[in-house]
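If you are new to this repository, start here. Below is one unmodified record pulled from the training split, so you can see the exact layout before writing a loader.
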Amino acid sequence: MASWHERGEAEPERSSLVRMYAVTGGRTAPRTGLAMEALVSSATSAQLGPTYAREYRAISELCRQVRSVAEISALLRVPLGVARVLIADMEADGLVRVYQPQLEAGLPDRGLLERVLSGLRRL
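And here is the target side for that same chain:
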């Protein structure tokens, strides 16, 4: 039986984990804090060319619609850590815009929490 090379076929894709390690440079955490619920949108209307990694091109296309980091991870079928690294790198290069959640938004007032705690201690 002829090999894939002898049949003129493209080389089978190597292990996705090895590829992800190479694409992220072995990094498992983004250079900047990036919440999994952060929203990401494409910063350019043009398609990224072949000089960019296919993961960058895929993220750019997905983010024509605003998507969360977790959603991008799931749609690309890559680990969340890998998606976070790639998105943070793309943000640094000006390829995507990231909208971090307001961590303090929706939290109860400190005074209210102190009154509740005081009431619980009296019980």
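Two things worth knowing about this chain: The first helix runs from residue 16 to 24. The two ends are 80 Å apart (CA to CA).
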